[in-house]
Amino acid sequence: MALSTVLETPGAGFNFENATRNAALEGLFGGGQTPKPLKTGTTIAGVVFKDGVVLGADTRATSSEVVADKMCAKIHYISPNIYCCGAGTAADTEKTTDLLSSNLSIFSLNSGRNPRVVMAVNILQDMLYRYHGQIGANLILGGVDCTGNHLYTVGPYGDINKVPYLAMGSGDLAALGILEDGFKHNLELEEAKELVRASIHAGIMSDLGSGNNTDICVITKQGVDYIRPYQESEYKDKRNIKYRYRPGTTPVLTEKVVTLKLEVVQEAVQKMDTA
Amino acid sequence: MEKHYTDSKVKGVSTGTTILAAIFDGGVVIGSDSRASIGGEYVSSKTINKVIQVHDRIFCCMAGSLADAQAVIKSAKSHLSFHSVQMESPPLVIAAASILKELCYKNKDELQAGFLTAGWDGKKGPQVYVVSLGGMLISQQVTIGGSGSTYIYGYVDAKYKPNMTREECLQFATNALALAMGRDNVSGGVAHLVVITEKGVEHVVVPGDKLPRFNDE
C-alpha cells in the first residue's frame, strides 16, 4: 500500500481496504460503532407535464439519526437539458451523476449535439449493472430533448423504467400517494409544480429521513428553472444573536517579520514557433 | 441498500411475472403481464414492459431479475443486429434464442434471468423458444413461464390446440394471462400481447379492467 501522500492510480474494480480496516477497528472499539456512511434518506419525485419535466427533492441529508446537511442539493446537473435526482448513498449518487455529466459533456463537444435522455439512461444502466448493486444509487432522470419530454428511473442493480410520474427514496410511498391521486397527462406548468411540491411535502411530513426545504427543477425546451429552495421548511430555526467575531477581538501580542531571500538560479528562454 | 424487506431470491427488482408464447396458424402470439416487484411485497412498477423487440420479427419476454434481464437483452440485441448485418439478411429466430442462451449459460453463476423468444422467419415460419435460468434452449409449440405460470399449466394443457386461428389464439393467450394474474400476487397490471406474422407485428394491450373475469364477482 503506497504512502497516503503519494498519488497512486487505482487499479480496476473496487478497493475494499477501508472496509477491512473498519471491520478491524470495530473490534477495537469494544462494542462501539464506526460512523455510518452519509445517506440521503430522501424524498424525490418527478412529473412529465405538457411542456417538459418537473423534478423535486427535499434537502435533508442524514448520517444515522443526525441531520448532517439541512440544505443538501439532491437535484444534480447532468447536461443543459437533463437533470437527475438521487436517493440512496449520497457519495454514490454524487459521483455517479458527476461521472455521467463529464462523459456527456465530452460527447456533446465531439458530436455538437445535446445528449438525449435515453443515452444518459443507457450509460447509467451499463455502469450500475457492472457493479451489481454495490453502488447504492436510486436515480430519477428527467429531461427534454428533440424526441420529447422524458422521465426515467434507474435502480441500483441497473434496471430502468420509463414513466410519466415517479417518486423514490425513503419517503416515496407518501409522495406516491399524492402523485397517484393528482397526476393527469398534459398538466400545465403551475399544476405540475404544485403536484411535485405537494408530493415532496408529504414525504417531508411523513418520513423521518426527509425534511427541511423543497427544491424544484423545471426543464422545458426553452431552458431550465432550478428553484432552490422552492418552499422553505415551516420549522426553520431563528438565530437570536450573530456569531461573527469583529476584527480586533483577538489581541496581537508580538509580531516578527522574516523576509524570504530569493535569488534567480537559472533562466531559460524557449522560443515558440508560430510560423 | 434494501429498504423493502425481502427474502426473495432475486436481488433488487424482480419481474415476478407471467409470460407466455403460442404458435397459431400463420404466426405466433407472445405476451406478458406488466408488474415489477421487490421482495414479493412492493409493486415497484405497474407498467413495466417485459416484451422487448430484438429484431423486426423477433420478440423476447423476460423473467427473473429485471436488471439482469434488461442487461442480457441489451447485449443480445446488439449481437443480433451485428449478425444480421454480417449475414445481409434478417436473422433466424433460433439465432436470437441462441444468443440469449450463450449469455445465460456462460454467466449462469451471476445471472438470474430466463427468456421466451418468439418470432417469424423465412426458413421455419413461426417459432417459439425457451431459454431457462441455467441456459437450456428448447423449442416448443406453446410455452409459459414466470411465477404465475404455475397456476395456468392445467388451462394451457387443456385449451391449447395447434393451428388455431389468430383470434382464437389471442383469446387463449388473454384468458391464460388473466387467470394467472388473478391468482399470482406478483403478476398483474395490463396484459401486453404481440402478434407476429410474416406480414408484420401487432401490439395488443388489454387494460386490467378489460381482462376476462373468471368467477371474480
Automatic annotation (TrEMBL), chain A:
Compartment(s): Cytoplasm; Nucleus
Keywords: Cytoplasm, Hydrolase, Nucleus, Protease, Proteasome, Threonine protease
Molecular function terms, GO-annotated: threonine-type endopeptidase activity
Segments forming domain Proteasome beta subunit C-terminal: 238-269
GO BP term, example: proteolysis involved in protein catabolic process
Domain of life: Eukaryota
Assigned GO CC terms: cytoplasm; nucleus; proteasome core complex
Active site residues according to the UniProt entry: T42
InterPro entries, per the entry: Ntn_hydrolases_N, Pept_T1A_subB, Proteasome_bsu_C, Proteasome_bsu_CS, Proteasome_sua/b, Proteasome_suB-type
Record field: catalytic activity: Cleavage of peptide bonds with very broad specificity
Main localization, broad class: cytoplasm
Function: Component of the proteasome, a multicatalytic proteinase complex which is characterized by its ability to cleave peptides with Arg, Phe, Tyr, Leu, and Glu adjacent to the leaving group at neutral or slightly basic pH. The proteasome has an ATP-dependent proteolytic activity. The proteasome is a multicatalytic proteinase complex which is characterized by its ability to cleave peptides with Arg, Phe, Tyr, Leu, and Glu adjacent to the leaving group at neutral or slightly basic pH. The proteasome has an ATP-dependent proteolytic activity. This subunit is involved in antigen processing to generate class I binding peptides.
Subunit structure: Component of the proteasome complex.
Family classification: Belongs to the peptidase T1B family.
Protein's name according to its UniProt entry: Proteasome subunit beta
Organism the protein comes from: Poecilia reticulata (Guppy)
Automatic annotation (TrEMBL), chain B:
InterPro entries, A to Z: Ntn_hydrolases_N, Pept_T1A_subB, Proteasome_sua/b, Proteasome_suB-type
Active site: T17
Catalytic activity reported: Cleavage of peptide bonds with very broad specificity
MF terms (GO), sorted A to Z: threonine-type endopeptidase activity
Key word Metal-binding present: no
Keyword terms, alphabetized: Cytoplasm, Hydrolase, Protease, Proteasome, Threonine protease
GO cellular component: cytoplasm; nucleus; proteasome core complex, beta-subunit complex
Keyword Hydrolase found: yes
Main location: nucleus
EC number of the protein: 3.4.25.1
Pfam families tied to this protein: Proteasome
GO biological-process terms attached to the record: proteolysis involved in protein catabolic process
Subcellular location: Nucleus
Known function: The proteasome is a multicatalytic proteinase complex which is characterized by its ability to cleave peptides with Arg, Phe, Tyr, Leu, and Glu adjacent to the leaving group at neutral or slightly basic pH. The proteasome has an ATP-dependent proteolytic activity. This subunit is involved in antigen processing to generate class I binding peptides.
Quaternary structure note: The 26S proteasome consists of a 20S proteasome core and two 19S regulatory subunits. The 20S proteasome core is composed of 28 subunits that are arranged in four stacked rings, resulting in a barrel-shaped structure. The two end rings are each formed by seven alpha subunits, and the two central rings are each formed by seven beta subunits. The catalytic chamber with the active sites is on the inside of the barrel.
Protein name per UniProt: proteasome endopeptidase complex
